[in-house]
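Sample intake sheet
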Amino acid sequence: MRLIPSSLLARLRLRSIRIVPPQPPVARRPPGPADVLAWLRDGRPMAGRDLSGADLRGIVLDHADLSGVVLEHADLRGASLRGTQLRHALLGGALFDDADCGGARFDGACLDGTSAERARFCGASLCGVRGNDARWAGADLSDARLDDLMAVGIVLSNAVLDRSHARGMVLLDARADGSRWRGARWDKVLALRARLANADFRQTRLRGCALGGADLGGSLWQHADVQGLQASGGTDWHHAILRGMQATDCNFHGARLADADLSSGNFMRSDFGTCDLSAACLDQAQFPFSSLIGARLQRAHAHAADFARSICRRTDFTGADVAGARFAQPGMPGGGLALVIPLASGVS
């Protein structure tokens, strides 16, 4: 048996090793419209399929089932998604500008950071959706379902949400100036620190909602039906129109209502304590069993207003027009113009 010296064996081993240079990674081509349509035509399951970054501009996916699909940062601008199922889909950062999503179902989907400017979500279901920092300015969400939607910092400026329904929705620091909610229904909605200046809430119905710290300057609330609203100190209603509002058990304590129009409204068992109602219009408004303790109504117009069953201690009516208004102090029946002079002087 012949032995091979160790030095020769080492050289033979080195010669047998082939050094392969590293190959650059093969770039993954994002799927395109043809791929998606082929998969749907073949009946392939879409749940969990990763379409991140796909360019699907203008694609027509009406009534397709894309539940559970991953479309993060995909481009769906101008796409047609009418009646499409997108439940529990991951859509973070996707572009839906000018897309038509009428009647689509986004229940449980993640829409964080999406852009849907001028998109149409008419009749869509967005229950349980997360839309933090989404940009939906000018979108149309008429008749949409928004139950349990959670959105911090969402942009809804000039969006239309007429007749939408929202139960348990949370809009923190939302920017919704000029948005329209005519005939909408809110139940237990939190819209804290929301920017809702010049928003349109005419004929809405609110139950147990909170608008603490919201900017509602110039907003419209004619004939709204509101119960259990929390909109106290820090909430700004200046120049808002609350004409004909029906409000029960609401808390406006310390809110700013300067130059607001509350005429012909009925505010029952509501707290206006320390509110700024200077130069506000309260003509023919009624405040049964409400508190206006320490409220400031300087230069207010309260012609024929009814304060007969409200508490007006330390209320400042300096310079207010209270012609025809009815007043009464606690524990005293009736009451009328005989009490106007001391109240108008700010004397309780």
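Comment: Residues 330-348 have pLDDT under 50 and may be disordered. Strands lie at 150-152, 165-167, 170-172, 185-187, 205-207, 225-227, 246-248, 266-268, 306-307, 326-327.
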